[in-house]
Amino acid sequence: MSFKTLSIIAISMLAITACQTKPVDATTAHTKAITIDTHCDTPMRFLREPFDIGQKHEAPSSRVDLPRMKEGGLDAIFFAIFTSQRERTPENYAKAYQMAHEMLDSTEKALIINKDLASLALKADDIYDIEKAGKRAIYLGMENGFPLNKDISRVEEFYNRGIRYITLAHTQNNDICDSSTDKKGAEHNGLSNYGKDVVKEMNRLGMLIDVSHISDKAFYDVIEQSNAPVFASHSSVRSICNHPRNMDDKMIKTLAKHGGVIQICILGAYIEEEDTTSLNYVKKEELRLKYNNWNFTSDEQRKQAWADWREINKKYPADLPSIAQAVDHIDYVVNLVGIDYVGIGSDFDGGGGLADCKDVADFPLITKELVKRGYSEEDIAKIWGGNFLRMFKQVEKAAEPV
Ligand SMILES: [Zn+2]
């Protein structure tokens, strides 16, 4: 062997050694990270049936409870106080307001019963003490601003009950802004004047503005209006899955430029385009029509619809996408804007769930996939909560001192 060949081998070996960093262990990375899921619809269950979050349940009918959060190494989750958008009549406003408070009452009660397992978190920093105490942190968000009923004082009223984000709209337009999926199209051409006041009030209080579900124009209006970063609590990437609920590249870049975070939603239809010929899809569409687009006339009807929905999932299970496909969305955001602007919002108990991630206990499998793709421990900590907490603290800091 010539000296030249030897030198090349030596240099190559040196280069290999220099590139070799300690291999990342998925279990260690997951345990070390502060893990936060920014969206689940579990409080809805409290209104449907007696449901104890302190007991272990089974997926797919239930995807979140405290024992499974512990099993899945999930430190915190945002419970969404969700009300679906109805026709804006005085009765429906009153009903949404009442339902929101009932869900809050039930969540409070559940946290009292399970005080050894979980605590309500109100500030970004609260998670550290709760995690140290070996408990789960429950944060509260409100999905759809319908219960506010154009009464700006209710923003603070719900803040005082623990709500820390508001998803401005849901699947239909409301008084605040246009939805990305309202079949009637735009009503306000983005954010309404009242919506601008809501944004201002949320900024003042240090509440997180959630742009998931709102129209593209409303998103840009919110960005222009807000003096703090905003975020998407559960949205995915439109370039991979062309759904109006997902964010396109320009929106993701704008969000990141303003310090916001997109929390990838692991709901099938937002991860890959739906097979509209599948029996699961067809039967659910029939159900939607049967219940007049989920406009229930009574609580009994709502409970029946829920039972029918579960029956369809049992009889005709959906062909769900995989964790690998969901992590493609994370990769995409990282390649587009860097590692600091992405996280996870499962939408569990509201439609979220993957073939190989059926509940919160499966979350370590997402970390396993991230490790497989070369993410470092530091990257994983950012994705699982670091990015979100950084933004949350910025929003708190931008608020008016009380
Ligand atoms: Zn949603």
Topology:
Blueprint (H helix, E strand, L loop, with lengths): L2 H17 L6 H7 L3 E5 L2 H6 L17 H6 L4 E7 L7 H24 L4 E3 L5 H7 L3 E8 L9 H8 L2 E5 L25 H13 L2 E3 L5 H10 L5 E2 L16 H9 L3 E5 L2 H4 L7 H12 L8 H17 L7 H15 L4 E4 L17 H10 L4 H22 L4
Parallel strand pairs: 1-2, 2-4, 3-4, 4-5, 5-6, 7-8, 8-9
Bound molecules: zinc ion (ZN).
Q: What does this protein look like?
A:
With about 400 residues, the chain is an alpha/beta fold. The protein folds into 2 domains: about 30-275 and about 320-400, Metal-dependent hydrolases (TIM Barrel), CATH 3.20.20; about 275-320. The protein is built from 16 helices and 9 strands. It has helices at about 5-20, 25-30, 45-50, 65-70, 90-115, 125-130, 155-160, 195-205, 215-225, 250-255, 270, 280-290, 300-315, 325-335, 365-370, 375-400; strands spanning about 35-40, 75-80, 120, 135-145, 165, 210, 230, 260-265, 340-345. Strands 1, 2, 3, 4, 5 and 6 form a 6-stranded parallel sheet that branches. It has a 3-stranded parallel sheet with strand order 7-8-9. Helix 2 (about 25-30) packs across helix 15 (about 365-370) and helix 2 runs parallel beside helix 16. It starts with a helix and ends with a helix. It binds zinc ion. The site of zinc ion has 5 residues, from loops.
